[in-house]
Design a protein that fits this description.
- This protein is an all-alpha fold.
- It has one domain.
- Helix content is 82%, strand content 0%.
- It contains five helices and no strands.
- The two termini are 26 Å apart.
Length: 105
């Protein structure tokens, strides 16, 4: 798979992972605890877990893509991606940071 395709998949997965995390926190958890509907957390949590793992795997794969970043990211890139994935709006902040880096010549 070419470099650009992996990186684009990483960015798209990050957005989906961030949205699934917000849905889990803001919709599924209140449904479980306030409406007695625990299956919402099971379904959304499973989807979020799959997206979380895909996000980290794609972060690892895109870390060594010099075509995209013009330099190789250090191992700290994985730490940044991990922290971004566990914060509610982290993937969106990371996406904005990546856009700013790509806009620089």
């Amino acid at each position: 798979m070419n470099s650009f395709k992996i990186f684009n998949q990483f960015r798209k997965t990050g957005i989906f992972e961030g949205v699934s995390f917000l849905v889990l926190l803001l919709i599924a958890m209140p449904l479980k605890y306030f409406a007695g509907f625990p299956i919402a957390v099971t379904i959304v949590g499973s989807i979020h877990g799959i997206l979380f793992m895909a996000y980290l795997v794609l972060a690892w794969e895109s870390r060594n893509e010099p075509v995209v970043f013009k330099w190789k990211k250090p191992i700290a890139w994985m730490a940044v991606c991990f922290v971004a994935s566990i914060l509610p709006f982290g993937p969106f902040v990371l996406e904005n940071r990546i856009k700013k880096q790509q806009a620089q010549p």
